């Protein structure tokens, strides 16, 4: 994993966002073992505390779990992963619709153009 962190926003939140994308896109599958905090810290150039904070938050959200002395794993709760996927999609749709509306595009035009795009008409 290699990341370029933005100057805006806490790094632990950016880490969480990247891990969530990897879970939603099935780069990290249910039950996959997560690299150790120490290994990720070295490879990403981020303090272990920052990575630990991201992992603890993701555990709290039910996306990771810890096996005592055996490491962290991606949840096997596929319903939770599906919920995360829907959340990601809704956030992307909301951003897209907001940008279109700010550009003066009406909702009916948005729908028509999305439908045309999905049907392969450009």
Overall residue-averaged pLDDT value: 92
CATH topology description of the largest domain: Arc Repressor Mutant, subunit A
**Number of domain modules:** 2
The global form is elongated
Count of helical segments? Answer: 5
Summarize, please:
The chain is mainly alpha-helical.
Description of the molecule:
This protein has 122 residues and is mainly alpha-helical. The protein has 2 domains: 66 residues, Arc Repressor Mutant, subunit A (Orthogonal Bundle); 40 residues. 59% of the residues lie in helices and 7% in strands. It is built from 5 helices and 2 strands. Strands 1-2 form a two-stranded antiparallel ribbon. Strand 1 and strand 2 form a beta hairpin. Helix 1 crosses helix 4. The longest helix is centred in the C-terminal third of the chain and has 25 residues. The chain is elongated. The protein starts with 10 loop residues before the first helix and ends with a helix. The mean pLDDT is 92.
Keywords:
2 domains; 122 residues; mainly alpha; single chain; two-stranded antiparallel ribbon; 2 strands; Arc Repressor Mutant, subunit A
Helix/strand layout:
Blueprint: H1 11-24, H2 37-44, H3 48-60, E1 64-67, E2 71-74, H4 78-102, H5 107-118
Antiparallel strand pairs: 1-2
């Amino acid at each position: 994993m290699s990341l370029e962190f933005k100057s805006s926003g806490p790094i632990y939140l950016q880490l969480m966002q990247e891990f969530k994308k990897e879970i939603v896109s099935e780069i990290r599958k249910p039950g996959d073992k997560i690299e150790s905090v120490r290994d990720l810290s070295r490879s990403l150039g981020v303090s272990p505390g920052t990575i630990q904070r991201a992992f603890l938050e993701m555990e709290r959200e039910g996306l990771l779990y810890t096996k005592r002395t055996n490491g962290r794993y991606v949840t096997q709760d596929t319903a939770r992963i599906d919920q995360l996927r829907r959340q990601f999609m809704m956030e992307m749709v909301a951003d897209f619709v907001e940008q279109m509306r700010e550009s003066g595009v009406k909702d009916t035009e948005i729908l028509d153009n999305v439908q045309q795009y999905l049907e392969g008409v450009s």
